[in-house]
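Quick review question:
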């Protein structure tokens, strides 16, 4: 969800950052180690992996039965052994904040990318077909409807190709109750089913670290899909997945940059230390997701991932902003109980006016991100653990804030919900 709502710990409007070139640093080894030692739910790697597209196996079966001479089945080579240009990657959610960077990175690494998009894409459908084609340049763009399995399958069939890997960056743009189930569960599942029908042997899912403590509908919808994806890989050893659970995106923390620049106070809940995160940039996350497409080391795992450096509380983010802006720090501390009160009122009103369901959900989303850290949750200690939250990439929030202070937020996307 680009929803600007969820990932702000400070409860204001969120915006995305501009694209640029980045140097990256990453060690699979490091991530694997962290994974094994810190993530109790990491799943062991299968030792052998062979893809077997259904479409092709049927054709081969026909050939074998038609021939009088016995033929020896040669095992299919995994797509991981192929040249990227021969690997067909289907991206759904390709026009989102992260999805478009994932498409760009996959194209850069030479994969044969097909991006599924809506005819009007982007926030409030602001992009025309032509703009979407421009946005996703380098990829084949297929206009289709991920919410309708039949039409999605038809669209893929019309492409006349098999699929090796599906990457899903789908997310409800609103975070509303029904939309979350429609997109974070159903449409994502449609992508799995359609991808499998045309041979997909691997599925990379962009999820969220917050699903480890699910209190919101979109988290429950994501978790349901995660469970079914894992089940699919258990049933078919030739199918694998990578579930990527990132911490906060930069855009989710940028809502107050302009305010601070204009001399306004930085607003935070409680003492500004109720939560923390290790923010990750969209190019760094896109790079990690692309690693998941072909790296054997990242299969059949749930992969929490943050950006470089220490975890930052809202107070630290505010202090950083004032320092970069060259202003005297000024904080407005809002008691978290105000949100609890508002949520209580909305929950009561929903019983009388069911149409307020989404408003109540947005209140809960705001409350969640005001108090819950976007870090690994340790159920044993009952605390979030920054040390155990793996880091990836080079881009820092400080550089991002500096850039936004200098260049402004113009041209950067606001999410659909800007409720706080
Ligand atoms: N924000 C954060 O800090 C944060 C942190 C960790 C994890 N996450 C997770 O990251 C994921 C992606 O976030 P994002 O910000 O990249 O999402 P986003 O910008 O909202 O993009 C959503 C994508 O899903 C597509 N989509 C939504 N509704 C659709 C519909 N009805 N039919 C077809 N396509 C639809 C959108 O297509 P259109 O362009 O056509 O609308 C877009 O491509 C989410 O699951 C989120 O929970 C976010």
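Suggested answer, residue by residue:
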């Amino acid at each position: 969800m680009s929803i600007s709502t969820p990932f702000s710990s400070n409860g204001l409007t969120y915006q995305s950052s501009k694209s640029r070139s980045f140097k990256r640093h990453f060690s699979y080894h490091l991530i694997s180690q962290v994974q094994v030692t810190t993530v109790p739910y990491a799943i062991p790697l299968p030792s052998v992996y062979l893809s077997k597209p259904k479409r092709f196996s049927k054709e081969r079966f026909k050939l074998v039965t038609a021939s009088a001479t016995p033929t020896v089945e040669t095992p299919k080579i995994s797509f991981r052994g192929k040249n990227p240009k021969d690997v067909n990657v289907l991206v759904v959610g390709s026009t989102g904040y992260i999805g478009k960077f994932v498409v760009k990175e996959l194209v850069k690494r030479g994969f044969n990318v097909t991006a599924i998009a809506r005819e009007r894409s982007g926030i409030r459908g602001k992009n025309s077909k032509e703009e979407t084609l421009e946005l996703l340049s380098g990829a084949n763009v297929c206009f289709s409807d991920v919410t309708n399995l039949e039409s999605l399958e038809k669209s893929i069939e019309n492409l006349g190709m098999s699929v090796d890997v599906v990457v899903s960056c789908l997310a409800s743009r609103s975070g509303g109750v029904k939309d979350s189930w429609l997109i974070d569960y159903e449409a994502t599942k449609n992508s799995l089913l359609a991808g499998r029908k045309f041979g997909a042997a691997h599925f990379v899912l962009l999820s969220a670290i917050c699903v480890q403590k699910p209190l919101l509908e979109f988290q429950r919808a994501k978790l349901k899909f995660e469970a079914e994806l894992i089940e699919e890989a258990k049933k078919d050893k030739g199918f694998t997945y990578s579930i990527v659970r990132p911490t906060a995106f930069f855009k989710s923390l940028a809502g107050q940059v302009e305010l601070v620049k204009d001399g306004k106070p930085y607003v935070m809940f409680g003492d500004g230390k109720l939560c923390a995160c290790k923010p990750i940039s969209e190019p760094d996350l896109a790079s990690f997701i692309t690693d998941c497409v072909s790296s054997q080391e990242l299969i059949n795992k749930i992969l929490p991932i943050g950006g470089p450096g220490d975890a930052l509380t809202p107070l630290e983010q505010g202090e950083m902003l004032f320092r970069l802006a060259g202003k005297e720090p000024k904080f407005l501390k809002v008691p978290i109980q105000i949100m609890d009160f508002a949520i209580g009122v909305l929950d009561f009103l929903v019983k009388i006016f069911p149409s307020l369901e989404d408003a109540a959900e947005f209140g809960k989303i705001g409350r969640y991100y005001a108090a819950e850290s976007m870090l690994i949750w340790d159920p044993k200690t009952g605390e979030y653990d920054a040390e155990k939250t793996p880091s990836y990439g080079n881009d820092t929030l400080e550089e991002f804030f500096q850039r936004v202070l200098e260049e402004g937020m113009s041209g950067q996307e606001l999410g659909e919900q800007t409720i706080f």
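Why it works: The two ends are 16 Å apart (CA to CA). DSSP finds 13 helices and eleven strands in the chain.
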